[in-house]
């Protein structure tokens, strides 16, 4: 990799081009490997594709750029506090529409911090949901037979299938 | 990717679910058969417990009077009564380890009455089968991460110790090299349990510490720290899963020797204080706070002394009973009844 490179260009699964700084890209192991790869040498024009859609990739890059300075150099407690607040604001998003896509992307890009944050956000949102709301967001069918429901109700009085 | 085709893979769903409190998981077992089955698998229970003990951190379970408990949430904001165990006898807590609580029915502290295991989160409670006798004994309870099992240990004078394993559902005798030495074990304060061993203070000519390895079931004596002043409320506790000793205002932690070295090393971590703390009795250390009980009728409760800020915070408990003991508590889905 040429030392003059400060940002790299990647393609989303929708074919849009995105720029990401080298220090931000280092938050992801696969991107880091790409950095060391011939793809970004001066004499290579090929732009690598990231299997993440544009809408999600925008958010992932936003997260990387925000977290990169701290990940690369360490930070004071007050910075950590500020970053925590930023994370909470950043995670205010629709579950089905974008949060689940972020989870998939964080998993695919091996980004532990973002993955943990997204899992915890999803879990916190689920706490307030009913069983039917949970089925809806995860596209799950109630596959208990009426006998099985009856049996669970007997074992655990008060449990609800709705 | 269109939303109507979008399914999260099983492993991602599982890693979201392990971050939920037990209360929510019990509700969500009605979502589908897959989830209901998942919550019973030992792997999921293990991962959930790991998350609840390492990331969420423990709550504080308080024993007030017999059968009267209180729980201070891990966010330190609310004091709640946990669901009382449905046991028709007055009980007190022997120990709390990785989500399960061992209870004993007895008015005579040192004679073994009925024993129960209780999961406050799932509300499950079971009587532990045992051969009752009137021998003088000290009871302890702990969880071994190595063998993934909960164990109850009874120490007698001049008799082999008895160890109950939850996974086998049975007791066995464990011999100690010199039974005479067992006589002084457990007279001072209670025991402490990490995820590897149970420890007791022992008084036999001098104060020592007896350890019981929960995986290998071997007893050994280890040296105590060089405490300046042996306080009458000296006690062992588990601090960040390490053995620690509280003696009045002195606080010692046992560090494992670094690789190459052998054995363990005690380090004096803190002398906390101010004159007002000298008259209070430390019960435990919880999340960087020393837990003291206080009783100025009609007010009873606990004081939390923050080791970083040196600030004292008071929590009042409803009722007339002073706090007898304080335990770390983390949630688990672990079942007591049907472990295979």
UniProtKB/TrEMBL annotation, chain A:
Under the heading Gene3D superfamilies, the entry gives: Potassium Channel Kv1.1, Chain A
- GO terms classed as biological process: jasmonic acid mediated signaling pathway; protein ubiquitination; ubiquitin-dependent protein catabolic process
Q: Does the keyword Cytoplasm apply?
A: no
In terms of superkingdom, the source organism counts as Eukaryota
**Which SMART domains does this one have?**
Skp1
Q: Which UniProt keywords apply?
A: Ubl conjugation pathway
Q: Which Pfam families match?
A: Skp1, Skp1_POZ
Sequence ranges assigned to domain SKP1 component dimerisation in this UniProt record: 113-157
Where is each SKP1 component POZ domain found?
Answer: 8-67
State the pathway, as annotated in the record.
Answer: Protein modification; protein ubiquitination
Q: Which family does it belong to?
A: Belongs to the SKP1 family.
Functional note = Involved in ubiquitination and subsequent proteasomal degradation of target proteins. Together with CUL1, RBX1 and a F-box protein, it forms a SCF E3 ubiquitin ligase complex. The functional specificity of this complex depends on the type of F-box protein. In the SCF complex, it serves as an adapter that links the F-box protein to CUL1.
Q: How does it assemble?
A: Part of a SCF (SKP1-cullin-F-box) protein ligase complex.
Q: What is this protein called?
A: SKP1-like protein
From TrEMBL, chain B:
Query: What is the name attached to this protein's record?
Result: F-box domain-containing protein
In this chain the F-box domain maps to 2-48
- Family matches, as PANTHER family: BNACNNG10540D PROTEIN, F-BOX DOMAIN-CONTAINING PROTEIN
Q: Which SMART domains match?
A: FBOX (SM00256)
């Amino acid at each position: 990799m040429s030392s003059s490179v400060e940002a790299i260009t990647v393609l989303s699964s929708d074919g849009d081009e995105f720029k990401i700084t080298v220090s931000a890209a280092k938050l992801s192991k696969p991107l880091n490997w790409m950095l060391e790869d011939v793809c970004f040498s001066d004499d290579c024009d090929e732009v690598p594709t990231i299997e993440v859609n544009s809408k999600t990739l925008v958010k992932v890059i936003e997260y990387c750029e925000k977290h990169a300075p701290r990940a690369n150099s360490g930070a004071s407690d007050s910075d950590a506090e500020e970053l925590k607040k930023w994370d909470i604001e950043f995670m205010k998003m629709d579950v089905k529409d974008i949060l689940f896509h972020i989870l998939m992307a964080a998993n695919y890009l091996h980004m532990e911090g973002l993955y943990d944050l997204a899992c915890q956000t999803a879990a916190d949102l689920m706490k307030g949901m009913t069983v039917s709301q949970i089925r809806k967001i995860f596209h799950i069918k109630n596959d208990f037979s009426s006998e099985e429901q009856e049996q669970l109700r007997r074992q655990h009085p008060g449990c609800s299938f709705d | 990717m269109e939303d109507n085709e979008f399914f999260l893979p099983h492993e991602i769903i599982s890693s979201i679910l392990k971050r939920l409190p037990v209360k929510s998981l019990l509700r969500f077992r009605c979502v589908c058969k897959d989830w209901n089955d998942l919550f019973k698998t030992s792997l999921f229970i293990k991962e959930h417990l790991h998350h609840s003990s390492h990331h969420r951190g423990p709550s504080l379970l308080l024993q007030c009077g017999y059968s009267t408990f209180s729980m201070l949430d891990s966010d330190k904001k609310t004091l709640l009564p946990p669901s009382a165990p449905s046991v028709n006898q007055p009980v007190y807590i022997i120990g709390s380890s990785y989500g399960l609580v061992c209870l004993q029915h007895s008015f005579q502290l040192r004679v073994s009455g009925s024993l129960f295991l209780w999961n406050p989160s799932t509300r499950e409670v079971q009587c532990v089968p045992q051969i009752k006798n009137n021998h003088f004994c000290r009871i302890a309870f702990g969880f071994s991460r190595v063998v993934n099992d909960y164990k109850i240990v009874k120490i007698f004078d001049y008799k082999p110790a008895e160890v109950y394993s939850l996974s086998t559902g049975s007791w066995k005798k464990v011999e100690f090299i010199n039974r005479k030495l067992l006589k002084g074990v457990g007279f001072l304060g209670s025991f402490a349990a990490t995820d590897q061993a149970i420890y007791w203070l022992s008084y036999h000519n001098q104060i020592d510490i007896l350890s019981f390895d929960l995986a290998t079931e071997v007893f050994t004596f280890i040296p105590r720290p060089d405490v300046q002043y042996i306080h009458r409320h000296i006690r062992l506790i588990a601090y960040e899963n390490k053995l620690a000793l509280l003696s009045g205002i002195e606080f010692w932690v046992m560090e494992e020797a670094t690789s190459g070295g052998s054995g363990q090393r005690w380090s004096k971590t803190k002398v906390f204080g101010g004159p007002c703390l000298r008259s209070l009795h430390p019960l435990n250390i919880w999340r960087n706070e020393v837990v003291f009980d206080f009783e100025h009728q009609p007010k009873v409760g606990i004081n939390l002394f923050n080791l970083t800020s040196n600030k004292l915070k008071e929590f009042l408990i409803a009722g007339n009973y002073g706090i007898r003991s304080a335990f770390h508590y983390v949630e688990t889905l672990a079942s007591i009844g049907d472990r295979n």
